[in-house]
Amino acid sequence: MGRKWNNIKEKKASKDANTSRIYAKFGREIYVAAKQGEPDPEANQALKVVLERAKTYSVPRHIIDRAIEKAKGGSEENYDENRYEGFGPNGSMVIVDTLTNNVNRTASEVRAAFGKNGGNMGVSGSVAYMFDHVAVFGIEGKTEEEVLELLMEADIEVRDILDEEGTIIVYTEPDQFHAAQEAFESVGITEFTVAELTMLAQNDVSLPADALEQFDKMIDALEELEDVQQVYHNVDHGE
Prior knowledge:
- By secondary structure, the protein is an alpha+beta fold.
- It has helices at residues 5-16, 19-36, 45-56, 61-72, 103-115, 144-153, 177-185, 209-223, and strands spanning 80-87, 93-100, 120-121, 131-140, 158-164, 167-172, 194-201, 228-233.
- The protein has 8 helices and 8 strands, in the order H-H-H-H-E-E-H-E-E-H-E-E-H-E-H-E.
């Protein structure tokens, strides 16, 4: 699983380069989590996880507060969570998670982003079975042994751990995201290079240059859609 770190770095770098769009997506996700439960992260596990993820992307406090206040204010704005699965050039696989207040519009836009860039949407389940849902953390200033010992003492199941140029990358079960975060915080680790819930491909594929260029255009088109929250894929961009 360790080789997947390249795709996570690439994904986060892409997000960091598009901060205003990312802040808007987090604002929507925070609003939905706060509206579906208590607006207090200490009483709402889903909201707490979103806020912890937002922290690694340096989402400004005013965006977080505005989304939570909107939920507290009883806004009638509702969003549906939907997942779309599809294929890119050369059989590459893509998962698209959305939050939308207009399912028909979003489905049409996602389908068009696939179709105009050499891809096509598949049926539900056609791709997701080839991905694993995991929590991933990137920690600096610790060794593999120290991180592994810490998580084992906290009864956190470690799926994989590796050292990537001094950054310890550890994968755990998604339902242990918060418990792992608390374990790290108990020893003073509060900053992470990445703290995410993600879908990782079980097997990566490499594309020839022309297909890779087309694939990247397709991913860009999907990520630019207002209703798209996350895009996952199985294409290895190398080092």
